[in-house]
Write a structure and sequence with these properties.
This protein is mainly beta. The protein has no helices and 34 strands. The protein has a four-stranded mixed sheet, with no helix packed on it.
Length: about 475
């Protein structure tokens, strides 16, 4: 008898002699192995004649090769070889557990099964195909397996904090089926665990519903309307900080509330808004968010920066600018400030531009160097922002200027014929705005020659 491969357990009870014709009697006497696949059968003949046929009768099914493959058929006639069929299921060589990080897809595991019928046999290392079925619920729906290589992968990353497996425990139960060329199958339950990994906190948001604004009059510690909030998947402790604090103007506490750090650096007239960047740190990852803080205007007491003393010539003309009063409330001079003359403006001699603070001559007849009563002024100038104001005294000194003298004396005089030299015959008076003769010099310019009646030209000239 010949077998398609080496086999074991061939004995007399596995062979039967069937009478084809006649009445011959026979029994199987012995079975001797010539090799592992060739066996000689000795038959004892009894009385009678006839035609016999030798059949395999592996009733107990123990004829098999080293891998356990058994007979495909026992119905063989003539010189045909008994075929040993592939009846051994594939055997799994890979692990039945695996794990993968929650943010990955794989490969998770490479499933490996073999169908080894023994070296030199025709079913050794034959092709194995792989497929999936769910061992629990719909867990297998989340995975794919390469039917040729057995590579197992997730279809999409899983979130450890939101499990989708059947028992919501982040353990997916899969049934992997391996099928060989002979149609023999084997199943293995594979458990895939999702591993938690530290994930970055979400981008911070402002949980305070109020608008993010502060007055320029805010002081240190005042709330600006920002309550930073984030969601950390692992509920790690979050440390808050500001990566941009607008040049030390703001600060943030351990709960994410932003407040004023330096109120003196906040000025509406300089900047109407500031940007801060909050950072959430879970110890490994960070997330940031930039937020805008609006600065609102507030009434402030102006501060004078200009001089409080000025001088003018007595011949200054109406409309001539003589001084520029400057005050500020933290920004540029004059910005947000209005001006007015509160007192000291005798005879409305001066005017002031309410927006620029420029003082100009309004009535030049109200001042005269030679008149001590109107040769100086002390103005009280107010600078205001809203309801807050401050005043400054501005001292204006009138300086002398050359003027044409005005004669105030009579134009005639007399003298006796016997008047001697040095006798006063007339008093010529002239002035240039002050007392008579003050700052005036006199000279005879014509007519100073002999005669009973003479006409003399007198010139009066300012000394300045």
């Amino acid at each position: 008898m010949s077998f398609s491969r080496d086999v074991n357990n061939v004995g007399t009870d596995d062979v039967a002699v069937a009478r084809q014709s006649g009445d011959v009697e026979t029994t199987v006497e012995s079975v001797t192995a010539e090799s592992a696949s060739e066996y000689d059968v000795t038959v004892a003949l009894g009385a009678g004649e006839g035609e016999l046929r030798l059949d395999m009768d592996d009733a107990d099914g123990d004829i098999a090769d080293d891998a356990g493959n058994t007979l495909l058929s026992t119905s063989v006639t003539g010189d045909e070889t008994y075929v040993i069929s592939d009846t051994v299921d594939p055997g799994f060589q890979s692990s039945d557990t695996a794990s993968i990080n929650e943010d990955a897809t794989g490969p998770v595991l490479t499933v490996d099964a073999i169908d080894d019928a023994g070296d030199g046999n025709d079913v050794a290392n034959q092709y194995i195909s792989y497929s999936l079925s769910s061992a629990s619920g719909s867990d297998a729906d989340a995975f794919s397996i390469d039917s040729d290589t057995g590579e197992l992968s997730l279809d999409s990353p899983k979130d450890f904090e939101s499990p989708t497996d059947a028992d919501a425990g982040n353990d997916y139960e899969l049934m992997v089926t391996a099928t060989d060329d002979g149609g023999n199958t084997n199943e293995q339950m594979v458990s895939v665990s999702i591993t938690d990994v530290n994930e970055p906190p979400t981008q911070p948001v402002d949980a305070d519903g109020a608008s993010n604004r502060i007055s320029e009059s805010a002081t240190s510690g005042d709330d600006v309307g920002i309550d930073a909030n984030t969601d950390d998947p692992e509920d790690d402790t979050i440390t808050w900080s500001l990566t941009d604090d607008a040049n030390d103007r703001f600060q943030i506490d351990s709960s994410g509330v932003v407040t004023v750090a330096d109120g003196t650096a906040i000025n509406y007239e300089d900047e109407t808004s500031h940007t801060v960047t909050v950072k959430a740190d879970d110890g490994e990852y960070t997330a940031t968010k930039s937020l805008t803080v609006t600065v609102t205007d507030a009434d402030e007491t102006p501060i004078f920066t200009s001089s409080g003393a000025v001088s003018i010539r007595e011949d200054a003309t109406n409309g001539e600018q003589i001084h520029d009063v400057d005050a500020n409330v933290g920004g540029s001079p004059d910005e947000g400030v209005s001006y007015a003359i509160r007192s000291g403006n005798r005879g409305e001699a001066f005017s002031i531009d309410s927006e620029t603070g420029k003082i100009a001559v309004a009535d030049n007849s109200q001042f005269d160097y030679e008149d001590e009563t109107i040769d100086s002024f002390t103005l009280t100038v107010a600078a205001s922002e809203g309801e807050r104001s401050e005043t400054q005294s501005v001292s204006i000194t009138v300086q002398d200027a050359d003027e044409a003298p005005t004669f105030t004396s009579d134009g005639s005089g007399s003298a006796t014929e016997d008047a001697t030299s040095g006798t006063q015959v007339h008093d010529v008076d002239a002035h240039v705005g002050g007392d008579t003769d003050e700052a005036v010099t006199y000279a005879i310019t014509a007519g100073n020659d002999g005669g009973r009646s003479i006409s003399i030209a007198v010139r009066a000239k300012s000394r300045w």
